[in-house]
Design a protein that fits this description.
Helices cover about 30% and strands about 20% of the residues. By secondary structure, the protein is an alpha/beta fold. It is built from 13 helices and 17 strands. The chain has a five-stranded parallel sheet, sandwiched between helices. A four-stranded parallel sheet has the order 9-6-5-12, sandwiched between helices. A hairpin with a 2-residue loop joins strand 3 (about 30-35) and strand 4 (about 40-45).
């Protein structure tokens, strides 16, 4: 009997290797799959289902295949997907961490959303795997990239004309005799996110708490799609350790190593996230008097109010703090990633006046590449209020690498990673 080269611990959502068959013996539950000219006997036991054999019957009840025609094992516990529709990448990354915890608690496979890039009123979707290693994420829980799910699995288990969206609502919004709407067909970025993903909902269903949404069983909704993330921003402290599973893929890391070799001349460097654009300046005008603002909890300063200086440090403070970090870590090369190039140039000139040996490079390959450089830097200083800084900080802390923030000269040691 010929069987494909698969593991006894086949993960749900993984594609079977239907390449050259070889003779092997498995003591697994056997499922017959007929293909032209040969007969294959497959052992298709998802890791998620071994403890509860009754879930296998769910696929039969729902008339769903155990394996798609494209060769993917179907998770009988169902799938969970959401739109990270609020904020840029830093915010989206925090929603992902919380949603990972929710997916694990529901025991559904998480359909990992693409990164949403905003461009003058339009959005583009960049798949998670363009930047990050999906295998690392799967060490925490079962995952599948959205493009793989929508093209290889959804057409057979979540067909057009059956797709339902669930969204948070309040009872007062439910009008008797009127159809309920989650506004995903008119509100952006949700509208473009789902349409670009190839999903067109035909039914909208409200829920009144995230707890209620988490109780929806796979028998009721085999694919649970939520309008937004069932997670908070900023990320809850209990979910911060999940950052250890978010890792750049080999291609991104190779690009970083090449950049360091060619542009930074293989010099150890200080990564600097300088958030100082006009939109950020406007956002920081609202901080005074707040005990918490955006990603400020990352600084562990619960007794202090968020200040204008903390959110938007002036030139003299930026220069002084960079000089302090350079001296502390015995560095002379600075890599700045910024949304205000003019301000970054002023910082570079000021650093040069203080010490002619200091070399400043301003990143020019886009925010995500800057972020990768931050995570690999010998030392790093960022903005306490920024979720973009928070991503780099979590990544570095999970690897035991130093992190500092402007204005905050002492960051307590973390024992939660």
């Amino acid at each position: 009997i010929y069987i494909p080269n698969i593991s006894a611990n086949q993960t749900c959502g993984k594609r079977l290797d239907l390449g050259r068959p070889r003779m092997m013996h498995y003591s697994l539950k056997m499922t017959w799959l007929f293909v032209p000219t040969i007969v294959l006997v497959l052992g298709l036991t998802c890791e998620a289902n071994t403890a509860n054999p009754s879930v296998h019957k769910r696929l039969q009840r729902l008339n769903l295949p155990a394996v798609t025609s494209t060769g993917f094992v179907v998770d009988p516990n169902g799938y969970f997907l959401f739109c990270p529709c609020q904020g840029r990448f830093g915010n989206q990354a925090e929603y992902l961490l919380g949603s990972m915890a929710v997916a694990k608690k529901m025991n559904r496979t998480l359909v990992v959303p693409p990164v949403i890039d905003f461009n003058r009123g339009d959005i583009t979707l960049t798949q998670y795997t363009k930047y990050f290693d999906l295998e690392e994420l799967s060490k925490y829980h079962r995952v599948i990239a959205m493009d793989t799910f929508t093209t290889m699995i959804a057409p057979e288990i979540w067909k057009p004309g059956t797709q339902t969206i669930h969204c948070m609502s309040v009872p007062s919004q439910i009008k008797e005799g009127e159809p309920f709407s989650c506004d995903v067909r008119t509100w952006n970025p949700a509208r473009d996110f789902w349409l670009k993903a190839g999903i067109d909902f035909v039914r909208d269903v409200p829920f009144f708490s995230h707890f209620e949404a988490k109780q929806i069983s796979p028998d009721e909704e085999f694919v649970l799609a939520l309008k937004g993330a069932p997670a908070s921003y900023p990320v809850q402290k209990k979910n911060v350790p999940l950052a250890q599973y978010v890792r750049w893929n080999a291609e991104v890391l190779h690009g970083v190593h090449e950049y360091v070799a060619e542009t930074l001349k293989n010099q150890p460097y200080l990564g600097v996230h300088l958030r100082a654009g006009s939109d950020w300046e406007s956002a920081c005008s609202h901080v005074n008097g707040k005990s918490q603002y955006m990603a400020s909890p990352q600084c562990d300063l619960p007794k202090e109010l968020v200040t204008q200086e903390l959110c938007l440090p002036p030139l003299d403070v930026v220069v002084a703090d960079i000089l302090h970090a350079l001296k502390k870590h015995s560095l002379q090369t600075v890599l700045i990633g910024t949304d205000n190039t003019q301000f970054a140039r002023q910082v570079g000139l000021a650093l040069k006046r203080e010490n002619s040996a200091i070399e400043t490079v301003i990143g020019n390959r886009g925010p995500m590449f800057d972020l990768a450089l931050f995570t690999q830097a010998d030392a790093f200083i960022g903005n306490c209020v920024s979720s973009f800084t928070a991503f780099a900080a979590r990544y570095r802390k999970s690897m035991g690498m130093p992190v500092e923030y402007f204005v905050v000269h002492h960051v307590p040691e973390h024992d939660d990673l």
